[in-house]
Amino acid sequence: MGRSPSGNGTSPNVIIYIILAAFGGLLLGSAIFGGLQNPSPPATATATQTYTPTATATPTDTPTPTATLTYTRTATSTDTPTATNTPTNSPTPTSTPTPTATHTSTPTQTPTPTSTPTNTPIPPSRILKGIQESGQLITLKTEMAEIRIEVIYRGHLNCEYSAKHAAVGVIEAGIDLEQIDENSITYHVRENSYVISAPAPAISSCRIEELDQYIQQGGGTATCFANEWMDMAEIARHLAMQRFVQESLEDDMLERAGKQAEFVLGNLIRELTGSSVHIEFAEAPNEPSLPESCQPKLPLGWRQDDEGKWIRTD
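and the corresponding structure tokens:
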């Protein structure tokens, strides 16, 4: 008779189960042992490994047990601190420079008044000192000559003789700076200019540099025993000076002297002050005032008669 399946003999299915269980145990132990020897360091990314050994035996008459072994290794990434980049939104404080722009503009306005020192007037006393150091301003000089200055003497008893003369002279004209005082100087702030009130141009000096008595006629007779050649030369000097002054005035010498004085005096004050200058001359008199040098005196005891001849009165 044959052996029953339920007897002491071992079933082939049981043997398969034992082999699968042993194989699964080996895999499990190997995984655990490997994990202990090579611990996984913190990873920057998540990694998952799954080992699924599966052994299945299906007998025809017994329910099939299933053994599943699963091993999972999970590493968590610590990259989340990258959220600390949010402080880059701090550009909002950049709006603070706008107030500074409004404050920097105001200081630039304050230095502008400092440019006005150029309009600070120079004291009139200082200007006057510079003018007076120049003394009398002679601006125009004219040399003149006259070769036909005749002096005729008429004496007693029909005594008459004459002499002819040639003369060379110099006439100078300008303004007298000694007549300018502090009240003559006015400063105009708006125009940054000075106005100087000056005396009218006038003849300032005259002189006869040469006088030659080159012709003598008559005299030396019984009726004209006394000849007055020296006095006649002095009369010629007087006549020459009169002619030189008259010709100078007719030649607009004073007008030309005023223009020259304005140029010289204006430059002098501009150098002292750095400002523009205008010279205002006083009105000239109808009869010019002449210095003594322009009015030589006649010899004593002489005068001119109606015919223009010179006679002695003593």
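(Above: one complete record from the training split.) The first strand starts at residue 54 and ends at 55.
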